[in-house]
Amino acid sequence: MSADAAGAAPVAVRPHARLRIVHRTVVEYPGPVAASYNEVRMTPLTMPGQLALEARVEVTPRGSAYRYTDYFGAHVVSFDTQVPHDRLEIVATSLVEVDPFHTPPPDPVGWDLVRAPHRRDRHVEWLADRPATSPAAEVAEFARARAGESPPDVTARAVASWIHERMTYLPGSTQVHTTAAEAWAEGAGVCQDIAHVAVGALRSVGIPARYVSGYLHPRPDAPVGEGVPGESHAWVEWWAGGWVAYDPTNDAPAGYDHVVVARGRDYGDVPPLRGVYSGPASSAMTVTVEVTRLR
Predict the structure, then answer these.
(1) What is the dihedral of CA 261, 161, 154, 74, to 10 degrees?
(2) Are 1 and 190 in contact (CB under 8 A)?
(3) Beta bridge partners of residue 169, listed in sequence order
(4) How many domains does the chain have?
(5) CA–CA gap between residue 277 and residue 38 (Å, rounded)
(6) Dihedral pair phi/psi, residue 6, rounded to 5°
């Protein structure tokens, strides 16, 4: 997420938004790579409130590829390249219509239903403690205190806002494998870290929570047709009678400028690119994302 995006509140005044997203990844190697095997999660979902009108992934050099839907519902393109190469380019282009408020929010429920045995069974994957999301003691204590005085949805919003107030959005302050506890100790991180902290805090008090990966239009006031540099983004969803999408990095509900690509227990379930290759031990990756509002 860009620095501009970290301070921008999503705009919810349009009947719907149409966004074009171009996500380009270039991996360069210091010598020839004999073969590489990869999978990408860069295709927006079609779901209530979001319609993927167009989605394609182009890879250079070309190789064999197939698509599948992973366990958590994300669209995955898996491909292998068997010709020698020192540069791999992946371009994912999407056209998406977003209308997240086309249905009313769910009616909030109490702790009795959120923590009911049949609900815990149904949401077991969104309640399990994970190394990446396990909360620091201070975070868990705050969540427990709020849970003792507020219903689940109010608690979740208070926890997300509290985390937003106490963590600075600071690119470069953490690494992809930084845990929630480590990022909290630093008092800073990127959207991935802030989402991990929020997910872990909510799970610690029995609120089912999932990590969401996707895109955010970083300048909702940009003119129609103007491409804006951006990055992949992360936020959370919690269950309190229905799934509620919230962006703790911006301390606001996920809105017209959020595009969902994948959901998982943490970032490890939803990386945009994952793979292995046979070749030099080092590589350099460059990622650019351009988001254009078409309507």
Answers:
(1) 10
(2) yes
(3) 189
(4) 2
(5) 8
(6) -65, -25
Residue 255, class by beta-carbon neighbours within 10 Å (0-12 exposed, 13-18 middle, 19+ buried)? buried
CATH classification at residue 151: 3.10.620.30
CA 108-111-114 angle, 5° bins? 75
pLDDT greater than 90 at residue 13: no
Does a structural domain hold residue 55?
A: yes
Coil vs helix vs strand at 27? strand
For Cα atoms 192, 158, 258, give the angle at the middle one, nearest 5 degrees.
45
Domain assignment of residue 276, yes or no: yes
The pLDDT value given to residue 93: 98
Q: Which tokens is 32 given?
A: 């020839």
> Which residue(s) pair with 88 in the sheet?
27
CATH number, domain of 69, equals 2.60.40.2250
Range of the domain at 175: 111-218+225-269
SS3 156: helix
Q: Are residues 120 and 80 in the same domain?
A: no
Encode pLDDT of 65-104 as tens digits: 999 999 999 999 999 999 999 999 999 999 999 998 777 7
DSSP-derived 3-state class of residue 80: strand
Distance CA 227, CA 290 (A): 6
pLDDT at res. 102: 75
Q: 240: which DSSP letter? A: S
